Amino acid sequence: MLTEITLHGDIITVIFSTAVLYGSLALFISILHNVFLLYYVETFVSVYKIDKISFWVGETIFLIWNSVNDPLFGWLSDHSFLSSPQSGSQITSPEVVLKRLKALSRNGPLFALSFLAFWVSWARPGLQFLVCLCLYDGFLTMVDLHHSALLADLAVSAADRTRLNFYCSVFSALGSISVFLSYSVWDKEDFYSFRLFCVALAAFSVLGFVSVSRMLRRRFQNEVRPKQDEALTLKELNVGHAPLTQPEKPVTIGQYLRQLSRHRNFMWFVSMNLIQVFHCHFNSNFFPLFLEHLLSDNISASTGSILLGISYIAPHLNNLYFLTLCQRYGVYQVIRWLFMLKLGLSVAMLLAGADHIYLLCIFIASNRVFTEGTCKLLKLVISDLVDEDFVLNRRHQATSALLFGMVALLTKPGQTFAPLIGTWLLCVYTGYDIFERKPDKDSLVSVPDVASGVGTPPLRLGCFYMLVFVPITCALLQLTAWSRFTLHGRKLQGIKTLRQGAQHGHLIDVKAI
């Protein structure tokens, strides 16, 4: 049932169309980011021939920038919300939404243009690798930060946020089609078709960001104008009257960090999410490697393409089912079940061994599907942490983008650790170096002789152990951290009730879905 809001005598059907438009923004992000995750390492290693030192230096600098830019952009966006009640109450919910949408309309097209910089060689590989990574991640951060913050700004109740996330999953699944299409044009020897494909994706994304953000801004501008007129009238009536209370000092960044350090659920969540980010990017970065060295001799190229595409689109489709489970059992319980499922499947695959090809196909795909499926649910948990932070620290406006940024500060290092630790484990355990340019290292025929040490397993067996032991280790650590997280059940419902009650008096209600 849709909620209708009457403005200026017109009845506008807001929520269904707003939810669809909000979800469609995920399409314009995912069609580019999926291709980036799948091909950027392979492009620089195999096409541009980047050397190992440049790769490691670039990833290390990227680690620092990747971690710092989220809280930096979040602070620049939301620090005004940490001010006194007198100034904080002047910022209405629709104005916050408008601020997010303006940022998306500016940074969305720039994000798409930065995506194109990867696929044309315009500088030395090491320099281009560093510049492209930092530029791309900077605009991706701005887009993702404000899009994620809108989830907490548009809705408070779990059911409303679940519906918004539902549309994000639908459009993200559509965005995964780019993975299917990319495999058919990907050719390390002839890059022209792949470049044209990336230009088409970027053009579509630019058009989408501009049109959707404009439509959403028009909708919320209709709600801001009456509030601004009311505020102006009240200001004129109060001219010459001294304020009854002294304004409070704004919260400094140091005070904000101390508040977060005392937020126990926040700390346990980022501990779990750091491992989750690492595992998600480990799967993305090494998926082609697992296909090549574990399955390539036993499956056709078309089967590999289908397996690759399914592993990208299925998490979004599965998430539609996971969200229905979240409505019934709660997000906390569903995430816990997914960790247990990841652990169980990995142990079963380890016991079955590397020789069961069909089981390997299912496991490689399902491992990515359930891991990515968990990631899709974590924005709901962060939105709940926004509510708890609002209540615990008695804020006058929720600092959604800032909290999402602080989560990223502590968890995004996992994105950089994934390729670094993965390539290191592969080299140490099997003797195989993906940066080695010798022809015999590129052939599976020479794999058993790759390591000269006695008792060192061949590459195929090493890849298999990486494939199963990484999710086993991640699942055990995550279950331990997640058991200490208490923001669920009655406590979560109490927090939401307190936030809705605190905001009821002075914010326009645009959250009902």
From TrEMBL:
It is a multi-pass membrane protein. The keyword Transmembrane helix applies. InterPro entries: MFS_trans_sf (IPR036259), TMEM180 (IPR040035). It comes from the Eukaryota. The chain crosses the membrane at residues 20-41, 164-186, 192-212, 266-287, 299-322, 343-365, 464-482. Keywords: Membrane, Transmembrane, Transmembrane helix. Coiled coil: none annotated. GO terms for cellular component: membrane. It is found in: Membrane. This is Major facilitator superfamily domain containing 13A. It comes from Sphaeramia orbicularis. The gene is mfsd13a.
